[in-house]
Amino acid sequence: MLTVIIPTYNEVGNVAELVGRVEAALAGMEAEILFVDDSTDGTDDEARRVARTASVPVRVVHRDRPAGGLGGAVVEGFRRARSSLCIVMDGDLQHPPEMIPELARRLAADDVDLVCASRYADAGSATGLADAGRRLVSRASTAITRAMFPLRLRNVTDPMTGFFAIDTSRIDLDDLRPRGFKILLEIIVRTTVRVAEVPFDFADRFAGDSKASLRQGARFLHQLALLRFGKMSAFAAIGALGAVANVAIVWLLTELGVGYIWAAIIAAEVTIIGNFLLAERFVFRDLKGQARGFWHRFASSFIFNNVESAVRIPVMALMVSAWGMASPVATAITLAVAFLIRFTFHSLVVYRPRVEARERTTTSA
User: Fold this and answer.
1) How confident is the model at residue 37, as a pLDDT?
2) Are 138 and 212 contacting, i.e. CB atoms less than 8 angstroms apart?
3) Which are the contacts of 364, defined by CB distance < 8 A and separation ≥ 6?
4) SS3 of residue 323 by DSSP
5) C-alpha dihedral sign at 343, 345, 348, 350
6) Residue numbers of the chain with a pLDDT score lower than 50
7) Contact indicator for 119, 229 with CB cutoff of 8 Å
8) Which of 66, 163, 245, 300 is most buried (most C-beta within 10 Å)?
9) For residue 362, what pLDDT is reported?
């Protein structure tokens, strides 16, 4: 049994052609097609219509509240699949369905857990990318990704591909934290899998528009940072952004005639609140479900940051006046220590699971 998982977002014009070609590729195989759909254009209804006359079972899961983007849809597909042997492919026909038997045969050899269809291995091709600019971005992002994970990706030429076969019985789906659309990278980095590659030609899109965008690029960079450095890197990036905002607010208010002390206080409070909201959205969002309520988290973070600031500034002054340390050095040291303390406090206190959530986790284990 084989499950072909197709995550879709507004691909209504591709469904009939896609199912027809996947059907042909699956001839003689016991298999199913599983659409995991986040669309708003009726892609799910079109898939159900096509399913009525398909020669292989076609199931549709429509997510009214998508979580984790395309990666989240793929993991949902893994959980809903009737087989642990899964092939993941996009819904725009840039991943040729005719490659399915080759991927399935390579996975069935049983010496690997994951088979990637690579645009950059041997005779592979990325000509389906819209233009030279996108091809350059693809090559550059692939090179950066491989450089950041040299051991995990030493045998993987195309960690960004969305076309692969996997035996999901060899991985723990709970280890995955899907964000955006690079689920393969998530799997390889967070789990221990044996990987092989087969080359393929990345085709032109059949219908519809590409989903690539600056937002998707930003999400990928965010995903890459979290995979490489964990939550701390994202927390640090938000802190750096807050520092820039703090300076800008102080400058603006003093230009408007506000006294420096009041300007500094206002800037500090605004950036404390802003940093908390950004951390909620981008750093700790996977912990919110089991933590205490929003206002409890906000109050804990707000009070702690104000206390930390009240302690840090006199300590910095003492280092300069009593120990003769240069003020930039003292500032850097106190900020570094404060960052580690803030991150630890937020991870272990602000987003600590509620007692009942911890008890549920223990019971389910």
Assistant:
1) 94
2) no
3) none
4) coil
5) negative
6) 211-213, 356-365
7) no
8) 163
9) 34
CA distances from 311 to 220, 305, 307, 308, 318 (A): 37, 10, 6, 5, 11
Q: Let me know the angle formed at the C-alpha of 356 by 350 and 360, rounded to the nearest 5 degrees.
A: 115
Whole-number Cα distances in Å, 19 to 55, 79, 105, 226, 229: 10, 21, 21, 36, 40
For the chain, the farthest-separated pair of C-alpha atoms sits apart, in whole angstroms, at 83
> What is the rounded distance in angstroms from the CA atom of residue 156 to the CA atom of residue 182?
14
What is the reported pLDDT for 357?
A: 46
CA torsion through residues 78, 231, 365, 295, sign: negative
Per DSSP (E only), the strands in the chain are: 2-8, 31-37, 58-62, 85-88, 114-118, 164-167, 195-199
- CA 56, CA 53: separation in Å to the nearest integer? 9
**What is the reported pLDDT for 356?**
45
Q: Half-sphere exposure of 180 toward its Cβ, with a 13 Å CA cutoff?
A: 22
Secondary structure class of 30 (helix, strand, coil): coil
pLDDT at residue number 24: 95
Q: How far are the Cα atoms of 18, 292, 310, 346, 354 from residue 305, in angstroms, in the given order?
A: 53, 18, 9, 10, 22
Contacts of 51 (CB under 8 A, 6+ apart): 19, 57, 58, 59, 60
pLDDT at residue 206 in the model: 53
Find, among 349, 227, 238, the residue nearest to 297 by Cα. Answer: 349
Which position has the token pair 């699971």? 353
DSSP state of 116: E
Supply 140's token pair.
Answer: 């550059």
211: its two tokens: 């989903």
Dist CA 313 CA 293 (whole Å): 31
Asked if 159 and 185 touch (Cβ cutoff 8 Å), the reply is: yes
Q: Which residue has the tokens 């981008």?
A: 282
Closest CA to 170 of 101, 108, 114: 114
CATH number for the domain whose boundaries are 2-227: 3.90.550.10
What secondary structure, in 3-state letters, does 45-110 show? HHHHHHHCCCCCCEEEEECCCCCCHHHHHHHHHHHHCCCCEEEECCCCCCCCHHHHHHHHHHHHCC
Cα separation, 96 vs 18, in Å, equals 9
When computed from its CA atoms, the radius of gyration of the chain, rounded to whole angstroms, is 25
